[in-house]
Amino acid sequence: MSRLPAFLTLFITVAAAVIADEPDFTNEQIEFFESKVRPLLVRHCYDCHSTDAKVLKGGLYVDGREQILKGGDSGAAAVAGDPGKSLLIDAVNYKSYEMPPDAKLSGEEISILDEWVKQGLPWPPVTTVDAAPQQESEIDWDQARESHWAWQPVKPVETEAVGSDAIDELIAAQRLTGGLKGSAPAPSHILARRLYLNLWGIPPTPEQVAAFVKADQKGRNTAVAALVDKLLASPLYGQRWGRHWLDVARYSDGYGGV
């Protein structure tokens, strides 16, 4: 005959003891609690007597069976199976205490709590899960912060590149390190087309191109800034990006191409 290992025997014994301590409620009793009792507790008691209460009153929690049996500053809130000895029933009847304080419960609500205590305070079983053991990270974050580029302070960039914007200078500097030459500035009509396509998603009209070419002759930076501001302020810019997001959301006005 094989013999169970000592640790397995101990485990079974402890598990059996824990299970034996837990009340065995029927599905009907649990349904009664969930449909009748819990909504009542949430509506009238949780603001002052739950883990979500901003200020816990009387040291009493009513959002757990064990907490109700343990009670608060005044002792056990309920005695399973005996409403007559339960402080909860006494309080809702406005005897030693007046709970809830703003208005007395209706006769039907008091009867629900009374029946709940008579049944032994039915409550769904509480499942506990042990926290996963903490494992040391394989990454030395202190060392990573010292060596990884993302944590390094930004260093001043020295460059001989000439440009009106800091970004242009940085790009030009990288281009120089790679021995690359920059492209020549785009003609006015090409630049206008690029701006319209990028921001609106549609090409400009001949009149719009002509207007930009005329403005560009007076100063490119001013002309570009004015056109970009105009395009960004238009609803057409929002519609362009709206189409992108609708594509991401897989939105369609059609049904199977019909």
Notes on the protein architecture:
The chain has 258 residues and is an all-alpha fold. The chain folds into three domains: 19-118, no CATH class; 144-177, no CATH class; 188-248, no CATH class. Helices cover 50% and strands 0% of the residues. Helix 2 packs across helix 5, helix 8 (188-199) crosses helix 9 and helix 8 runs parallel beside helix 10 (220-233).
Straight-line N-to-C gap: 75 Å
Summarize model confidence as the mean pLDDT: 83
How many discrete domains?
3
Beta-strand content bin: under 5%
Uncertain ranges: 7-20
In N-to-C order, the SSE pattern is HHHHHHHHHHH
Number of separate strands: 0
Give helix % range: 40-55%
Tell me the Rg in angstroms. 37 Å
Specify the number of helices. 11
Question: What structural category characterises the helix and strand content?
Answer: mainly alpha
Biggest sheet features: none
Gross geometry: elongated
Primary descriptors:
mainly alpha; 258 residues; 3 domains; single chain
Task: Provide a brief overview of the structure.
With 258 residues, the chain is mainly alpha-helical.
How do the strands and helices of this protein lay out in sequence?
Blueprint: H1 6-21, H2 27-44, H3 65-70, H4 87-92, H5 107-118, H6 141-147, H7 166-177, H8 188-199, H9 206-216, H10 220-233, H11 235-248
Helix pairs in contact: 2-5, 8-9, 8-10
